[in-house]
Amino acid sequence: MEQIAADRNAVATATERRAKFFRGLADQSRLAILDALCAGPLVVHEIVGRTALTQPNVSNHLRCLSECGLVTSMRDGRFVRYRISSPRIADLLHDVEALLDAVATGVEACRNYEPDEDEFHR
């Protein structure tokens, strides 16, 4: 009986961890930043140029991505250069695109998670 409870707790913990991870990715701005960083390390103004996000928005989301361990940074003279922390993140984004190609009709039709257009451009 104790083993069943322990197994349920482990599953719940793993599920909560995955949900938290995907909530971190469930933002258009953060995904745009990660997409930009897939090409290689960039400084904030380069990310702004590639994503059309504002500098404060980029900086805020980079802080979030960094705190979650998805992005790392290193000083490059007077700038800070950001990069994806693991090539597996770029692989995940690529795999998502392949998955979307397979189930796009369902995702396109889903209205439960409509993006807020204003949020993306802040």
Automatic annotation (TrEMBL):
The keyword Acyltransferase does not apply. Gene3D superfamilies: Winged helix-like DNA-binding domain superfamily/Winged helix DNA-binding domain. It comes from the Bacteria. GO terms for molecular function: DNA binding; DNA-binding transcription factor activity. Coiled coil: none annotated. The keyword RNA-binding does not apply. Residues 10-104 form the HTH arsR-type domain. SUPFAM superfamilies: Winged helix' DNA-binding domain. InterPro entries: ArsR-like_HTH, HTH_ArsR_DNA-bd_dom, Metal_resp_trans_reg, WH-like_DNA-bd_sf, WH_DNA-bd_sf. Keywords: DNA-binding, Transcription, Transcription regulation. PANTHER family: ARSENICAL RESISTANCE OPERON REPRESSOR ARSR-RELATED. This is Winged helix-turn-helix transcriptional regulator. The lineage of its organism: Bacteria, Pseudomonadati, Pseudomonadota, Alphaproteobacteria, Rhodobacterales.
